[in-house]
User: What shape does this take?
Amino acid sequence: MIDLTVVWAAIIGFAIIAYVVMDGFDLGIGILFPFFKVGKDRDTAMNSIAPVWDGNETWLVMGVGGLLAAFPLAYAIILPALYAPMIAMLLGLVFRGVAFEFRWRDPAHRELWDRAFTAGSIVATFAQGIALGALLQGITVEGRAYAGGWWEWLSPFSLLTGFGLLIGYALLGACWLNWKTEDGLQRQAVTYAGRLGIALLLMIGAISFATLTLEAQYHQRWLSFPGVLATAQVPLATLIITFLFYRSLRLKKDAQPFFWALSLFGLCLIGLGVSIWPDVIPARVTIWEAAAPHRSQVFMLVGASIMVPIILAYTAWSYWVFRGKVGADGYH
Amino acid sequence: MIEQDWAIILARVQFAFTVSFHFLFPAFTIGLASFLAVLEGLWLKTGKGVYANLYRYWLKIFAVVFAMGVVSGIVMSYQFGTNWSVFSDKAGPVIGPLMAYEVLTAFFLEAGFLGVMLFGINKVGRKLHFVATLAVAAGTFVSAFWILSVNSWMQTPVGFEMGANGQFLPGDSWLAIVFNPSFPYRLVHTVLAAYLTTAFAVSAVGAWHLLKDRQNPGARKMFSMAMWMAAIVAPIQIFAGDMHGLNTLEHQPAKVMAMEGHYQSHPEGAPLILFGIPNSKEKRVDYAIEIPKASSLILKHDLNAPLAGLDTIPDADEPPVGIVFWSFRIMVGLGFAMLGIGLWSLTARARKKLYDWPSLHRAAVAMGPSGFVAVLAGWVTTEVGRQPFTIYGLLRTADSASPLDAPAVAASLVAFVVVYFAVFGMGIRYLLHLMKKPPEAHEATLDGMPIRSAGITPAAAVIKGEGA
Assistant: This one.
């Protein structure tokens, strides 16, 4: 008998990974945007994501909608606990989402909408990083509700994860531009990717060590023998992939650095899984405590198992349609 | 206690504000996506340039509206959790899966094909591009299907069991939940409303340009198409609305009592109050202008049928009468005004004066925003009419909110109001700016960029098909 709660945890996990993989580079381009030259370079950077950003962002809705559907208790506790960062993220996404259209509609205010694009991307990313940190450090739960104040999410640790995600998404953005653009913009992106790779590695180290001090559960998971033999593979793999990432940059590969950077994110998410499994709210609520009833799980699973492959197929098709290097007048 | 009341009032204002602003955009995109699909289909079938030009003209507008709909829609998927967490915990097992289906079957479909629809015509060719347009149009409809199923379940909850932990749990049939008693009526009424909203927005743009240049082929075509929609859909909508009202009378009588302003029961035929000022303190409608027994005739199809009033409902379970009474009249009034324009356009067509009747065009311009107002008024009627419950009769609004401090909710409300008015205000300005430009014979693709010479070149087809 398959435990559908575990299946649904895996599906939500997949949605989160898909979101980070796909929207991470969109937001990263927003973060790096002010560093690009006004005119052709900015237009090209924007064009490289214009046809896909909306689909990418839908995975965020899938993640939160799936959480409501499959783990309603977790949804009902997490969102009030992360009230301020979540509202900030939503408003940030408003600014950067409309900027895609508005900057073309109003050349007189293009500079304004470019700033809105950057500010929105930074706020949304920072808020997502803070949300992750706040969850990891633990939130106050009483009965079936959040019981902390409205500033509980704010701590040095959550700010650290916020900055960590800014660097991480910026790295993905730089790698994406290396893949999709040419000439000056591409060279600029490669330079940024090189610097951001080091910064991300330092951040991953800092966040990992800080995490170990947060809850006894994390410390025990990672460092007690013999589990350490398995968990030690994660930092080891991180170092190897960092090496491969820099090697591909040095060899002037187009696509490879992007996928190595994604692999670094993948390892971070695996690390996250090691720390919190099987909790949906770390050290507070397990996936089984928060799970929707069997009937809800089955009903949704029917839809998900039919629809997710179809979604992945047409998403892949859309990326394929817009494959190759983009120009400043490419899509728009 | 007072502080808690404030937190709930502010959370309600925040939801009303964000959802009202949001719904303006899908009300337009649902209709506009279908309109675009029809235009592109006609272009493929006839090869006439006027359709291709109109497609491109409205696609630019669609892109802006859609972007605003997306970003304001994401906010809604979080509002349930940030501000209404107790409701989410309790109703999540029933409504959560329906929303998950909305994401899986609608949001991804719209978003996945939008890129190709907006930017891909030179890359995929005309036929595949038409498929993308159809996919986006289908996505907008499927989205409406699921979210209206959720809303209808909150209005007419069926098919559930109560869990020991206080949750609403699904019963053995999901079909009963999805197709709950008010859902078919609400779906038809809302989708028709979106079509009418779009028809009147399109006709206003067409009429505006006809007033300046009666010969503009794009303006003539869009005005004619929109007027056909108005003439056909407005009467159907009035009929559908009447059916919806009868359904509401059966399942949510208190809402209909508030709509009608019936504070008292009428054992021998209830009057139809056309206008008046509801006075909830004295439980009567002041200065009422009424038609004796007409309400019984409409609701029961019998002049003398008894109709219960709000005196049969405990005070604690009554919706706010004034708001519901007025929003309902605004909606119905606009519905009949739409019917009037539709009939007028038929007369004009019969006299072959559709493009040469300035007062009709001026009326159409004035009616441009009517759909948006009517749609919001309709939602206010049904949502305020459901109060004081979130899940009708079962879960009170006061018991649904998140455990938040009032200052937190107030601060976020202020942020939403400021950002929405600034951002969407600019967006609406851009829309009006796009609409102000007359549809051209060689309408450019997005952002006026020239169509690439590579691949299939619809630009050439447009030029050849010109003057059609």
